């Protein structure tokens, strides 16, 4: 899935870079605003407890800092996990490769835009420090794994989730199915970009999709294992709804 340099034309690579950069700026602003909204909620709760004073101001700063540190630690931990798993590449014909993506997993734990920022940073480090993926096509890799797999996978999950019975069993089944779909869909976009660039013929579709259909099974299994483990101690989005619905 990590496209090397030379696989995309200047026009395709440039367009994908622009699209990925736009989403990154939007996502970064969204995450920043989310953190400040959390501070506003803490401030309101402290005011309700007994008015706002110098003491409560220090208390607010301490609580907010602790909450941000906890969130950043979670993002760093999940990013490190995905980073390690993505380094396991499986060669595919036409010079491409397949591997675990982790897009939907990150999105279900962190939210779509925070997940996108983490994936973009992971792919940048892999590219610059380990030469895993080309610098010229970095926008394409970020678009496929961040926009398509993470953001797209999350909103497809949420769309279906709002239309089915909210139980923990359905949560894990849906997560597994969409983890598989996100991998296949991202590989399809990748194949289309290569084909559109004129790098190879239409056979790249069958090569990429068939391999990633198998890789997607592993992605589904890993996604379920991590979510099941985290759901025991962390209030994951959607899981809380399922637990409340089952009471």
Describe this structure in words.
With 247 residues, the chain is mainly α. It has a single domain (10-246), classed as Arp2/3 complex 21 kDa subunit ARPC3. Helix content is 77%, strand content 2%. It has eight helices and two strands; from the N terminus they run H-H-E-E-H-H-H-H-H-H. It has helices at 10-50, 54-86, 103-110, 112-130, 138-161, 168-196, 203-231, 239-246, and strands at residues 90-91, 97-98. Strands 1-2 form a two-stranded antiparallel sheet. A hairpin with a 5-residue loop joins strand 1 and strand 2 (97-98). Helix 2 (54-86) crosses helix 4 (112-130), helix 3 packs across helix 5 and helix 6 packs antiparallel against helix 7. The chain is globular, with a radius of gyration of 20 Å.
What keyword list fits this structure?
8 helices; two-stranded antiparallel sheet; Arp2/3 complex 21 kDa subunit ARPC3; single chain
Provide a compact summary of the structure.
The chain has 247 residues and is mainly alpha-helical.
């Amino acid at each position: 899935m990590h496209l090397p340099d030379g696989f995309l034309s200047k026009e395709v690579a440039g367009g994908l870079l622009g699209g990925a950069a736009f989403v990154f700026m939007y996502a970064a602003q969204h995450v920043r605003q989310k953190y400040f909204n959390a501070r506003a909620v803490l401030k309101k709760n402290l005011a309700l407890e007994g008015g706002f004073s110098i003491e409560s101001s220090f208390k607010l700063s301490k609580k907010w800092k602790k909450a941000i540190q906890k969130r950043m630690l979670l993002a760093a931990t999940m990013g490190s996990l995905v980073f390690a798993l993505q380094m396991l590449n499986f060669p595919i014909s036409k010079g491409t490769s397949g591997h675990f993506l982790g897009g939907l997993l990150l999105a279900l734990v962190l939210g779509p835009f925070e997940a996108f920022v983490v994936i973009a940073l992971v792919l940048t480090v892999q590219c610059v420090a380990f030469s895993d993926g080309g610098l010229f096509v970095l926008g394409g890799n970020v678009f496929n794994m961040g926009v398509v797999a993470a953001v797209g996978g999350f909103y497809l999950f949420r769309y279906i989730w709002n239309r089915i019975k909210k139980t923990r069993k359905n949560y894990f089944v849906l997560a597994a199915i969409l983890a598989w779909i996100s991998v296949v869909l991202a590989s399809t976009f990748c194949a289309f970009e290569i084909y559109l660039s004129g790098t190879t013929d239409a056979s790249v579709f069958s090569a990429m999709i068939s391999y990633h259909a198998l890789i997607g099974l592993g992605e589904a299994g890993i996604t379920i294992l991590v979510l099941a483990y985290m759901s025991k101690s962390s209030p994951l989005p959607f899981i809380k709804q399922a637990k409340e619905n089952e009471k």
